[in-house]
Each structure stands twice: as structure tokens, then as C-alpha cells.
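Re: the pair you flagged

First of the two:
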Amino acid sequence: MKENKNRVLAERILEEIGGEKNISNSTHCATRLRLVLKEENEEMVQSVKKLPGVIDVVRKGGQFQVVIGNTVDKVYIEFSELTGGEKKEATEDTKKGNIFSRMIATMSAVFAPFVYVLAAAGTIQGALIILSQIWPSIVETGTYQVFDVVSWSPFTFLPIFIAVTASKHFKTNTYTAIFANAALVAPGFSELAQRAGAGEAISFFGMPLSETVYTSTVIPAILLVWLLSYLERILERILPEAVTRLFTPLFSILIAVPLTIIVIGPLSAAGANVVAAGYTALAVSFPALAGIIIGGAWQLFVLLGVHWGITPVILANHEQYGMDTFQVYQTIAVISQVGAALAVFLKTKKKEVRSVSLSAAITGLFGITEPAIYGVNLRFKKPFIIGIVTGAVASLVTSFFNSFSFVYTGLPGPLTIINTYSADHPSSFWGVLTGTVIALILPIVLVQIFGYGDDAVEEAADVPLSTTELDAEGNN
């Protein structure tokens, strides 16, 4: 019987971090096993790093992040079976670190589990945009209209997705969280909010109903679940055990939903819009500066594991303006690191390095850059620096074309540049395409000139391959 290498890796990680008793919380994103440990040290980091199948270990935001690659979901299943998964302490992970660290950890826990769903929906939208330009009359067909509705559905009901993942993060009842957020995105409530926005006098507990519509919103949905987690624990302590199962969700809904509608929702939605407006003002007034900063620094955010924190701003841009520039420069930054890994593949004569770099470049096509960063570019150092410089240069050039992303892209990368096309902004797509070409070619040229760091060959040869070299069962 073939050895289950995902199970073995989960067992080895658990052993090296001190066993189940040392874990407060566990979750995962697209490439990382994210743990909150009661105790951690540098010796533990180095031990986990050496495990076959582990790319790197990052300690950030109060988390012990084990970078595994695209098989992380399979490893996490095995890890959860070994540790009891949901049986971890309820709030330890939310107390660790400063406010910024906790916010980043929350965003990661909330969005990572369903980012591929948003990516799939964004790809459908991008394909429909292209198809409507090639065949304009198709927009009148029922088939096109049905797929258009399908592609928008995850974004329309985004608070419900958030309810599921946020309830697990805050350790509260998932079904109560779904109930609460579903109430906010219900067509009837959205209609009431729109009528209030149109000037109709609609009162709620004697106060004018806010015109805030909660479809596609992020912060109100997260804060609502966070509030539910506290209400649930308080109510479970004070209510008689005989009635707690009924009255805990009942009173939680009756308290949390009105508070969100009256206070939390309008304030948090306004705050997100202010941040989005601030970034948009920077991008409009100084597009070149925005391109250089984001195109150059984005992969540093990925390296630090804090990249999920910007997601609410991007979604607020799409909700408020119907377009966004941040993901344009994100896309260029991703492609630059892919280009750097590809440059190493073309430059090296070493079989092991060619295998690692090609595998990482292929994975990067789908917006997953950790294998390229940890498996190749950072190991040799020069390619990573070249990728940063190239990302800044290519984004600078792209900014001259007034480019936008018209559809939210869960995982920006070479395959999602179609989302930057619009008949009303024809230069947008050509700007991103130009930036993409620069981001792919310039690293190849620079690596050919400056090399990639041959002294690191032996170290890179030990790096595990990404999931493009897995067997049918998903084993390394």
C-alpha cells in the first residue's frame, strides 16, 4: 500500500511543533498551513523547515505559517484529523499579536478558504466580457444572461461566504452567522435600503433606515460575526441550560442584526469606502507612484503573509467604482516573479534547478507565487530582487495606459489579464498586456546579464517541487 505522504508530513509537523497541546488554532490558505501556537521558537522553525514537503516557515501576525504549496489543503485535512481540528481554544488566536496582526490573521482566515471560488467567478466574468466584444448579440441570449448571473452570485452573496469562514475563525455557530448575514443580503432588505436611499421615509426602531446595501460588503459581515461570537458566549453563560439551544441564536440575532443595521454596518461600510477612495485618489493623482509602490512591494507583502489585508479595499473599489487599479499592479507583480523563475529555468544548466524553477513558473500562471518565491527566487536572492525591480518598472509603464481591473480577481496572474478589458476603456487591456510582456521578458534579460547566483545551487536543489509534480493521489 502506497504511503500517504500528506499524512506523514502532517504527523511530522505536529511532532516538531510540540504536539496537539501546543496548538491554539489551525487553518490554511492557498499555500500555507497557518497555526497559532502557545509556544514557538527558532529551533522549531528550523526543524519544520527541514521536513520534506515544506518550502519555508514564516512567523508573522501571531501565526506560525508553514509554506507547503498547492497540496496544503490535503495536508490540512490530515492535520485536522490528528489534532481534532475545531476543538482548539476559542479565542487564543484572536488575542495574539497587536491589532494589525490580528486583523491580517482574520482576513487570511476569512478569505483564503474560498478565494478559488471568487477566482472561478472572476474568470467566467472575464470570458463573458471578451465573448461579448467578439459576438455582441450574444448578450441578448438567455445563455449569456444566465452565466452572467452565475458569475456574479458569489460576489452578491459574499457576506454568506464570509459567515461560514468567519464563524470558524471566531468560533461561533456557523448557522447563526449565516442567518444573520443572509438577513442583510436578502432581496427584501436590499430593496428597503434602496428605497431609503431614494428618499422614502423608512424607520427602524424610530430611526431612519440607513441606505447601506450589504451585498458584496466585507467589513460589516466580518464584524457582525465577531459580535455574534461574544453574544453567544455571554448568552450561553446566563441562560438556563434547558433553553439555551433555542434562545441563544434567537437573542443573538435580535441583538446583533439591529446593531449592525443601525451602527456597525453604516460606519464600517463608510470606513471601507473612505480607504478605497483614498487609494483611488492616489491612483488617479499619482498613478505612476501607485504603480511603482504596489508593483514593487506586493511580493514583499506576500512574503510577510499580510497580503490578505488589502482584500476589503479592492472589493470596496469594485463595489463603489465598478473598477480597481490595485489588482492591475498586483497582476504585474505576480507575473514579474513568474518571469524571474522562468529566467532561472532558461539560464541554469543544472537539472535539479531547472525542474524546480519550471515547476514554480507553471504554478505561478495560476496566481500562486509562493513556490516561485521560496523555491527559486529567494533561494538565489538575485531573481527575487530582479522580480521586485521588474514589477515596479512594468507597473510604471502600465500606469501610463490608465489601466483598470473591471472584475474582481481572486488570484491575480497571467490568466486573469482578460479582466482588464473593457470596450469603454480600450487602452486598459493593452496597458496590462504591455506590462505583462515587460514583466516576463525583462527578468530573462537581467538574469542573462547578471546571473541568478550559482553559489546557491546546492541549496535550491533541496527545495521540494510544487504540485505540478504530484501523483494521481496528490502525493509528492
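Second of the two:
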Amino acid sequence: MRLYHSFFPFLGAVSAASFHERTDNGVPQYKDASLSPIERANDLLGRMNWEEKVGQMGGVRRLAEAKLAFNRSNYEAFVETQNGILGYGSMYNAPLDLLPIANQVRMEQVNSTRLGIPWITVTDSVNSIYLVNGTLFPATLSMGCTFNIPLYKQVVQVLRDENRALGTYWVLSPELDLAKEPRGGRVGEMYGEDAYLVGSFGSQYVKTMEEKNEQGYIQVATTIKHFVYAQNQGGVNLASINAGINWIMNDLALPFWKVIKEANPLSLMASYSSVDQIPMSANQYMLQDILRDTLGFKGLIMSDAFGISNMFTAQKTATSAQDAAVQALEAGLALELSPGKPGYFPTLMSLENDTRIVELVDKAVHQILMIKLATGVFEQPLASEETIKKTLRAESHLEVNRNVSREAIVLLQNDGVLPLPSNSSQKVAVLGPFASLINAGSYAPEDPIDSATGSGLIESLQEALGADKVKYVQGCDIVLTNNTSGIDEAVSAAEAAGLAVLMLGSLSTSADPYMQSKRTDGEFYSHADLGFPGLQQQLLDSVLDTGVPTVVILSGGQAFALSNSTLRSNAILHSFLAGEYTADSLVEILYGRVNPSGKLPVSLPQASGATTAYYDFLPSDSVLAGPSGNGSTAWQWPQLQRESPFTFGYGLSYTTFAVSAPTLTTTNTTVQISTSVTNTGNITGKEVVQVYFRPKYTRTIEFPVRRLTAFAKYELQPGETKDITFSVNKEELGYWVYTKYHVYPGEYEFWVGTSSRKQDLKNATITL
């Protein structure tokens, strides 16, 4: 059997000669911060016994799962065999409440164990610190709406600094999966459907988190994930992925390749799905031949929660817990992220005399030690109350949050009703079950109702307009009920006010037990119907039938299929998954204080059955339905076109923009795409100029009809024109055929514009 393994770029062979060395002052080498991480890791590994090594390959998922529910006996049972990584707490916990417990167990680990190897604290960090009282940003998909990488860098700096204030030095982000399956519940955790967009955001996340501090330590280690995922059958969370290697290499793996090349992340999480019928946790071909040997990844590979255990309990590809652990180890996994219960790697304890297993464990533990040493956890001081109070929710952090929240909202439709007059006596009926809560996502640490930081739409509107001008009627529940009495009340409120704002959506939250029963989105929640859950569509239709001017605001991570009746609305805004200032930003946009500038990072399907809605489809995917000559222009029956009306990159503004046709030139290594963008309207606004390409003809494989290769966001005054030149490396214009990457000479077509829609693009062709 071939065993595939690789080390970090700064790792070398473990040198036995360096074991047990001491510095001139008698300190063991691994405790001497003046030495390199490789010298320290080599020394420490040589001092460790078998139990200490295996113990490093797992840890305590979280110190607490509910408010201060720290259980000392459970903790000690875990620590006996799993003592490498530590989860600070859960979305229910406040940092200062947990701080004494966290610091106590950190000190115990250093002072009461033979070698004093410290914990490294690991956490999810999607849109906050995964604890209450941090800065709560909009979720990942909403970040993708901004198309603003410099602004996102500021967001990640906040997440990095707030995590470090808690003593957290390793995060389980960014998620590089492509949101191309709208039925999947985890779409809200992803940046979008396009590989270049996702890779751009992911690369910035890794670079910012792993930036070195003044002492030369990596500030926070990152974990790119989930390799590979997000094209699960039917959108079902744990379902398998049936994809050939060309599809994987030219689609699912592309954002990983981009981030690996640009940012060199320290770790990667394998998905818990099967790919081509082989569980990723034991998939040597995907994790070694493809990920390491072809894509060049050199960091640590960890399992997802359930990733190793699923092989035994669900996928039935392992005969025992130990068999699953050995398969994962042989595939290259170094760390097990266990789902809050004893993991499977501790079963390796009985294999101390198996020289092959010992070698693999040594390599795995060496990688774990290197991350601990690279982030400085051996030297970092304990978290302090003073630092936490000073850092979490600092005013500069909240200002970044306000700015990104304003750019994370997409205007989909507007017949001129928006912006609403700000100095009017017009009352407004606020309707729908999402107007009273913050729908922040399944990895958000806030209760979406009472204890949430920030406010829902009702509170923000009342603060802006006065309570006397805002009438709220929920109208219906989130989930299906037989109670329609609220709909009549909502209709009456709309007619009385003369203006209706409905906030509808799909709930993705984990923090509130009561709301759990109403949850319809997020991890483990898939969608057989892409319409609104419950009676929300009936509520909307009833209000629209009144003829009252109606603004619809969408909330949730899923890509809703907007029915023809929904499109009767005078305006539609999409807020996706919210942060604490999303409601305030919606009010600013509704009343024209902020000009919307968000763009769709995912294409919205036209119907629940039209789930292949993504923009970068293959040419043959758009062949017209019906026999030749019957006059059919439909892609599917009933009459649907392959390109969604609300497609990737689309989003309206209160002003208008014009983008000129591109001019193409070349250097030895790049294609230069020159264009200009003009604000042709009457107010200041921001526009995202997008560049797409495709080779006119390809060899062997089909290439998408177009693919994003550059974008940038610009703010323009009325009448202002900005000249722009994008430089695209020619190496970015190729494609994979099996595991060989090719950039062929020939004609290439480039488009520039304001979305991926044909009517929003202008093109030019060049021969390379």
C-alpha cells in the first residue's frame, strides 16, 4: 500500500540527533522561543511517549455547550486521551463568564502534565467569535454580496483580533465550497457560486488571519474547508457527491487551488461526504494525489466532525472505530475534530508496536506541534478580562460592521417606489415573521430575538420614523400552520398605511431553543421546495392583491425561487443572512440614505425544479427544449430560459452606470483588459465592474459559457468616469484535463460589465 504524506513548506525530516538537546541555559529546546519552529518541534516530538502523541490528535470540542455548563468529569475523561485542541465555548456562552474556566484548564495543561504542551484553542469563526458579545457581522454569503475584497480584509482583521483576545489561535474557516446546489442548507456559509469570487474572499481571509505579528508569530491559523463538498445529491447535507475528476478540477477544487497558491494556509478540513463513492476522510487519491501532489497543499489535514466516525456508523466502509481511524490516518488526516464525544483516533493507542502506524502518527503529531509553535501558543499570555473588554465590540469594529452591512444588501427589483421619501408623513405596515428577528445563520452566536445584539427591522424602522408611523403585524408563522387569521390583519394594516414592507424568508439559527422548532435552513436542513416556508407566499399574495405599494425583503441563506406573484412586488431587496446592523442598513437603503451596491453571489432559480441555476454552465447545458423547428425557445417546460433573470453578479442601484466595451492588449505573461465605467445617473453610487472570459474553442472538455476572472468595486459621483485596466495572468485562462493543466493558444473572448447577464456585458476577442 502506498502511503501519502507531506509536510509544511518549512518542515524537514524529523532529526533524531536533535532530540533531548538543551540550550546553553539548560532549557529544553522546545521551550526556547529563540529557536526555529522546526528545531523545537523535532526536539519535543522526540521527548513524547506514545500516549502523549496520540493525545495530540484530538481534543475537547468545547468547554461548554450551554450557559456555563462546564462539566469537570466529562472534561477530564476527554483530556485523558484527547488533549491537543480545545474549544473555548459555544454560541450560548459569554467570553468573560468562561474566561476563568478557560484559563484554569490552560494552566493545568501546561503546569500539570509531563511536558507542559499547551492547548491550542480552536473555533468556528463564520461571522463572529462563536460566543455572545462579539461583533456580529453578516454571514459569509452576505460578504460575497459586497464584491469588496478590501472591505472584507477589514472584517477579517476584526474577527482575528477578537479571537486572539480570547486566546483563540486557530479557526475553522474559510469555507471554499461553491454554492451551486440551491437545495443545500449550507449555502449561507459559502461566499457564492463562482470559483474566482470564492477563492478571492478565501485568499484574503487566510492572508489576513495568518499575518505575522511583531514577534514573528502567525496570528491565527486558518482551515480551508470542506475538500470537497457542496454538490451533494439532492442538496442533502451528508449525501455523496457524484463527480468526475474533470468536474472536480475545473469547478469544486478551483477555489482551493487559488487559495493554496496565493495564501499557503496552514490547515485544511476534509469533508464528511463520499466523493465518487469513497469517503473523503479515507480518500487517499483525493487527499494525496490531487490535493497534495497536484494542487500543492502542504499543510495539515483534519477531519470534519463526524468525518471519521461516519465511515463506521453511516457509510459502512470501516468495520470498527479503529479501522476507521487507521483508514483516516493512512489517507493523511492528522487531527480529528470530534463531534462533542470521544473520537476515533484514541483507538490507535493499542497499535504502539505497529511501526507503520507509529511513523504516520509521528508525522501527524509533528504537523500539529508546528501549528502550535508557529502561532506561539507556548509563549502567548493567558487571555485577560482587560484585553477582552477593550477588544470585543470596539467602536472601530462596529464601524467596519456598519460599512459591510450596507454593501451586503442586494436590490433585485425596483419600479421606482424606492427610495421612499424620508420627510413624508407616510405610515408603513411592516409585515412578515422575519421583521422581528435577526436571521444570522446556523453558526451565529446570538439569540435571534430577545438577547440579540442589534435589532430587527421593526425596531430599526421605529427608531428612524417614530413608533406611531410603524404598524407591525406578523401575518403568519415561519413554518406551516393552518392559522390564516393573521393574514387578514396584515391586509388591513397594509390598506390602512398605504405602504407595505414584507420581510419573508427561511430561518437559519441554532442559538435559541424556541426558534429551533421553526428552523428551515442551515446545516442539516435541505430544501425540496425553494419557495417560502409556511404561509408566507399566501401572505404576500394577499397583500399584493390589495394594490398597495409593496416592498419585499428576503432573509435567509437559501436561494429562493421567486414566483411570478412575488415579482408583482414594487421592489425586492435580498439581505441573505444578517448581522447586527443589517436592519439599520435596510432602513438606510429604503429611505435613500445609502445607495444599494450589493451583487448576487448566487443565481436565483426560476422554479424549484430548475435547480441548475448557476451562471457558468456548459454550452450544451443550454440546448433548447423540444424538437427542431417547433418554435420552442424554452430550456425547460414550462417556459424557462437557462440564464436566470436574477443571475450571478446582478444587483441594482438608485443610479445608473455605463461600462464601455473592452480593449484587449497583451504582455508576455498577462492580458490587459481596459474599460471605463461612468455614473450616468444623478446620485453617488458604487458599481462592481466584472470581467469574464472563455476560450472560444477548447480541446477535450467543455468549458463554461463564461467565467469570472476579475472584478473591482468603484464609487463614482454623478457624471464621473473612471478608466480601469485589469491585468489577468495568462496562466489563469487554462483548464484541467484530468490532472494536467493546460493553457492552449487560440482565440479568447472577454466580457466586461455589471453582471454575468448577456445584456449587461460587452465583449472583445483576442488571439493568444
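The longest strand covers residues 685-695.

-B.
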